[in-house]
Amino acid sequence: KAFFISPNAPEKCPLNPLGYQWFDFQSNDPALIWSKILEAANTLNSFIDEQLEKFNLLDKDLALIGFSQGTMMSLHVGLRRTETMRAIVGFSGKLIGPEMLEKDLISKPPIYLIHGEQDPMVPYQDTLDAAKVLKSKNIDIQTHISSNTQHSIAEDGLKIAVDFISSKFSK
After folding, report:
1. pTM metric for this prediction
2. Low-confidence residues of the chain, pLDDT below 50?
3. Were 154 and a residue from 59, 77, 109, 146 both cysteine, which residue would form a disulfide, CB within 3.0 to 4.6 Å?
């Protein structure tokens, strides 16, 4: 049995009136962005805790899957929860505040980051940079760059994500 729960981010997105965002990334003030990420992390952690309790599950029963800011939040939250979750899959995102991991890193779930090579919103180099940082922290990290893919999820990346999640829950 599996539950797939997909929350909207809490804020309306000014750049996409039909979309939502976890934090405003348009600010050039890193301190302001970081404070908004911490606020969003509290919101996301509370949501995760409520869902785990509602379905009588533990972190070891949980995988986070995110796209863009969802990836950023999944990495932020997933590496800081007191109990290690089963896995994280991130599409078209990046690791925010990698320098903060030195003091904040608590858990090390296996991670697969997938990115389009032609992403104009979040360059795929951000995934490669995140992988370097996570590898240096002895985190099981894999990456895949999808050819001819912009800020979206390509079929090859989706298959990799499904296979990765399946492998983590079949043990």
Report:
1. 0.95
2. none
3. 146
